[in-house]
Automatic annotation (TrEMBL):
InterPro entries: YbaB-like_sf (IPR036894). Residues 121-137 have a biased composition (Gly residues). This is YbaB/EbfC DNA-binding family protein. Gene3D superfamilies: Nucleoid-associated protein YbaB-like domain. Residues 85-95 have a biased composition (Basic and acidic residues). Residues 23-44, 83-102, 117-153 are annotated as: Disordered.
């Protein structure tokens, strides 16, 4: 993507925010189950999970007394997986809400914009001859260029 002004980046950011809010609202729709229940294969363990998939309750049948530690662990995991599957009918995976955190499109838009300005592709403070850009008019070096002036704060 190429942006020619800060206003165009601002419009892009607004579009991304609007899209993210719409996706969030859709993910919170009324058809989203508020809980799920699952059982182990043998039915000796039942697990209830909340709408986010966190375990709310685990119920054990008396027959668990016959299970060793590995069998108990396996049966418990089966029941949790079944409860998660019940929470997502059709077995489709829930959308990862943290995926949006890895979207760097806004950051990249700003980087591209300022890189273009620093390379002399625009006027203004970041363009050629600007306070932060390339050589000044008349060929005198700008700040940060060999022979240019440096200002420290």
């Amino acid at each position: 993507m190429s942006f020619d002004s800060l206003e165009s980046i601002q419009a892009f950011v607004q579009q991304r925010v609007t899209q993210a809010l719409a996706e969030d609202a859709a993910s919170r729709g009324a058809d989203v189950p508020q809980s799920g229940t699952g059982e182990s294969v043998e039915g000796e363990i039942t697990v209830d999970v909340d709408g986010k998939g966190f375990v709310r309750q685990v119920r054990y049948d008396d027959s668990i007394a016959e299970l060793d530690a590995d069998e108990l662990r396996e049966a418990t995991l089966q029941a949790i997986q079944a409860a998660h599957a019940d929470l997502r009918p059709g077995g489709r995976p829930a959308k990862d809400p943290t995926a949006a955190l890895h979207d760097n499109s806004v950051d990249q838009a700003y980087r591209d914009y300022f890189d273009q300005r620093m390379a002399g592709g625009a006027s203004g403070p970041f363009g050629a001859g600007g306070a932060f850009g390339g050589p000044r008019p008349g060929g005198t070096p700008g700040p940060g260029q060999p022979g240019g002036t440096q200002t420290s704060i």
